[in-house]
Design goal:
It comes from Viridibacillus arenosi FSL R5-213. This is Putative 3-oxoacid CoA transferase 2. GO terms for molecular function: CoA-transferase activity. The chain is of the alpha/beta class. It is built from 5 helices and 13 strands. The strands form 2 sheets. The protein has a 10-stranded mixed beta sheet with strand order 4-3-2-1-5-8-10-11-12-13. Strands 7-6-9 form a 3-stranded mixed beta sheet, with no helix packed on it. The protein starts with a helix and ends with a helix.
């Protein structure tokens, strides 16, 4: 079965997770990661008070009391644990999460992200983004590379409000995975239908890459 853009991103991120990791899944594309773990034992955390999230339930098995931070129905795995918001954010702020997987509005060339406020739009809630950016041991961004208007979400400088000074470790899009280094933005791997030259042109930023990627 051919994967759509969101599924391509989620599957690629699942490859980055290691057995035993405690992983927070943000709203949107990150929640799809649970469907691509292929038996890998990781502990999925939601900041509304759950460790042990499983893949989305079948329609006839939805429990309205089991939801993630985005109010989407979830399943639970054996040994799942429930707790209050204070304990949840204590885990996050205390550095007990191995990985946080977040969506974005923008990400700049240094790896700083904006994902909680759109200029001139009402702010519905900050959520846990700033705590996750600061508290997780590793931060992975899950997002399509281009906005609805065709503009790149990977930008020279943020024009949206920052989610914190901490730089993310990886940005996984439907075309490529990016890493942020002192030398610049590096393309780790390329798997979409754009060549490296086309990718550089559409993003509008210089990108570092290995010779093998260009072939």
């Amino acid at each position: 079965m051919k994967l759509n853009k969101r599924e391509i991103i989620a599957k690629r991120i699942a490859q980055e997770l290691e057995a035993g990791d405690v992983v927070n899944l943000g709203v949107g594309i990150p929640t799809l990661v649970s469907s691509f773990l292929e038996g890998k034992k990781v502990y999925l955390q939601s900041e509304n008070g759950l460790i042990g999230m499983g893949p989305p339930p079948e329609e006839n098995a939805v429990d309205i009391d089991l939801i993630d931070a985005g109010k989407t129905p979830v399943s639970i795995t054996k040994g799942a644990s429930f707790f209050d918001s204070a304990d949840s954010f204590g885990m996050i702020r205390g550095g007990h999460l191995n990985v946080a997987i977040l969506g974005i509005l923008q990400i700049d060339k240094s790896g700083e992200i904006a994902n909680w406020a759109v200029p001139n739009q009402p702010i519905l809630g900050v959520g846990g983004a700033m705590d996750l950016v600061a508290g997780a041991k590793k931060v992975i961004v899950a997002s399509t590379l281009f906005a609805k208007d065709g503009s790149s979400k990977l930008v020279d400088q943020l024009t949206y409000e920052s989610s914190g000074e901490r730089k993310v470790d990886l940005f996984v899009s439907e075309y490529a995975t990016f890493m942020f280094t002192s030398e610049g933005v590096k393309v780790v791997d390329l798997y979409g239908d754009l060549t490296i030259e086309a990718l550089i042109e559409k993003v509008g930023l210089p990108l570092l890459y290995e010779v093998e990627i260009a072939k």
